[in-house]
Amino acid sequence: MAATLAKLGLHNIQDLLFQLPRQYLDKTRLTPIGKLRLNTHAVVQGNIYKTEIKFGRRRSLAVTLEDTSGRIVLRFFHFSNAQKNRLQEGVLLRCYGEARLGSSGLEFYHPEYEFPDEDQADSLEQTLTPIYSLTEGLSQLRMQKLSEQALSFIDRYPPEDFLPDDIKKKFGNVNLTEAIKFLHRPPVDAPVQQLLAGQHPFQRRLAFEELLVHFLARQKMRERSRKEAAEPMNIDPAISARFLEPFPFSLTGAQARVCAEIFKDLQKTAPMLRMIQGDVGAGKTLVAALAALHVANNNKQVALVAPTEILAEQHFKNFISWFEPLGISVYLLVSKLKAARKRESLAAMADGTANIVVGTHALFQEQVTFNSLGLVIIDEQHRFGVEQRKSLREKSQDEKVPHQLIMTATPIPRTLAMTTYSEMDYSLLDELPPGRTPIETLVISQQRRQELIERIRANCAEGKQAYWVCTLIENSESLSAANAEEICEQLKEALPELKIGLVHGRQKADEKDQHMQAFKNGELHLLVATTVIEVGVDVPNASLMIIENPERLGLAQLHQLRGRVGRGSQASFCVLLYGDKLSEQAKQRLAVMRQTSDGFVIAEKDLQLRGPGELLGTRQTGDMQYLLADLERDAPLLPEVHRCGKKLLQTQPDAVTALLDRWLGKNQEYARV
Ligand code: ADP
Ligand code: MG
Question: Which of 348-357, 396-405, 570-579 has the lowest mean pLDDT?
Fold first, then answer.
């Protein structure tokens, strides 16, 4: 059990006490069956009216339960004979589950159930049931018992309250011990709705502390990072000039400024840890290339990590054409490479022949080593977690820590950035290259599809290129791929004179490549794609994008997609082709897209509408998540959190250590990156 708990970072009683429930169930009262509401959890109790095995599309055991107010079917798709035999007609049963719509009306699927001794309600739970985060080998019941045991110590060993008095007062001078007891086992009369919304004063008090701890952890990370040794790079302006010579444009003011910031960092003996934020199309690739240039010029290696193969490939092709003329070698490492070529890349990285390596997640794999890694560049960082970044750093054979440059096109509102990336320095690429014409966004109904197809015909006849984007179906890449294939066929039929390509995540790599490249070369008029083209793809001649069912996507994602057009000088259009039933909220969101092309405004809206998990991508990366705090809801607390955090770091280092230990426990790996 100790080993299992360790996986959750739980090593002692204090860890258990601060492992607060994620959620609560209300099993303190019985609901009459006749009063059950769709999609709500409830405890019901009644006698079994009948039990039968149904042979529908799937074999199931259907147990009909009856009380004085009505009947409901409990349905089990997996059941044993013994189970079936105990669930006999007439038996008194209590069960807990979520009422959902089944073939017989409201049903419970696989509810928890028990056989109560008597028909008395007083054997019901006396507190709300806490629901904890679990891991394999740890059941909810076991975790509840463990927290029960931990709570039995809290009065004898109350946790120390480290918050300054003014903050304590702000949260109503909550007693920390009482708050923890309450949150683990809220009494029957606790305000359930408030608790479920995370709005209870005790939750607020602890959420503040949690935010504070995360801030402190990031600050510590920053401190530690500053103490590490990195190779200082010599910056030779003449090299920059030579590199930029072939380009038909010069750097924007913002690019020049951000490059200067990066160069300053690179000359230091402490590792750079800098995040570049720039809206889509701001020209981040070139900034990254200039950083890579100087590191390669110092005979150190550079790794550029992209989130998709398409993007890695695109960067690779650009880099080859930019760097090879200067005698700087560029290699590619993505998982689909033929074995021989992969071996070649791996060997070149290990012996130092490769100056720059462009790749995907494949770069995080075990067999990857570098001779002397000087700089890691992560493109579109929100897809990579702290842990992944760290694994890359450890691949270099020399003692020094590589510099790190992190680029993101997800404009993160300032308050969020200050909290989530407070260990990093921050540069803003706040200027688009000149000559871009704004993208006009249209929101139109599927009913006008035919009209739209005619428009594409006319546009492509003039030599323009277009994307037709099929959105994700229920997060299933294979369904989406099938959908894209179907739409591609339809469009080919409707537009026989056009050359149409297809790109989706289920294709063979060669096929994907071939279509992507043909589109880039202007050999295809129209590219039908899933959201695999979301990030980074750069084809300046494409000036029309149709996004089908845009209501399925978040705003930040739509903004990313839309950023694939409007990259050349011609007028560009983005058509949001929505389905039949558009909710009010969906309408509002699409209206935002029509009204603004400012990534920051869109991100703020997205944050309001969907919460920070989606925006920051923490869900995908497995980065440390908050138990109680909610970055959107609690954003107003952040300035106070920062003030308080800085003060504690200066005046009470012991309290800082104790707080980190209390909340993050041995999970400090996270704080050690
Ligand atoms: P993002 O910031 O979205 O990654 P990219 O690096 O893909 O943007 O750049 C978008 C486009 O702008 C590319 O076609 C690139 O060549 C072009 N570009 C980059 N910098 C400049 C500049 N200073 N002037 C004109 N065009 C530029
Ligand atoms: Mg990019």
Answer: 396-405
Contact 100, 44 (CB under 8 A): no
Query: What would the pLDDT profile of 645-664 be if each residue is shown by its tens digit?
Result: 999 999 999 999 999 888 87
pLDDT in the model for residue 625: 66
Sign for the CA dihedral angle at 654, 655, 656, 660 comes to positive
Are 147 and 265 members of one domain?
Answer: no
| Domain enclosing residue 515, as ranges | 439-596
Token pair for 404: 């790190």
Longest pairwise C-alpha distance within the chain: 90
* Residue 234 sits in the same domain as residue 301: yes
567 lines ligand 1 (CB under 6 A): yes
Question: Does residue 561 share a domain with residue 511?
Answer: yes
Are 378 and 236 found together in one domain? yes
How many domains is the chain partitioned into structurally? 4
Q: Is the CB–ligand 1 distance for residue 281 below 6 Å?
A: yes
Residue 611 Cβ inside 6 Å of ligand 1? The answer reads no
DSSP designation for 137: T
Residue in 232, 278, 238 with CA at minimum distance from that of residue 255: 278
Q: Give CA torsion, residues 609, 610, 615, 621, to 10 deg.
A: 180
**Residue 374: partners with Cβ closer than 8 Å, 6 or more residues away:** 230, 231, 233, 295, 298, 300, 301, 302, 400, 402, 403
CA atoms within 13 A on the CB side of 263: 18
Q: Is the dihedral of CA 221, 226, 227, 231 positive or negative?
A: positive
Task: Give 284 Cα–ligand 2 centroid separation in angstroms.
Answer: 6
> Is the domain of 372 the same as that of 251?
yes
CA-CA distance, 524 to 482, in Å (whole number)? 21
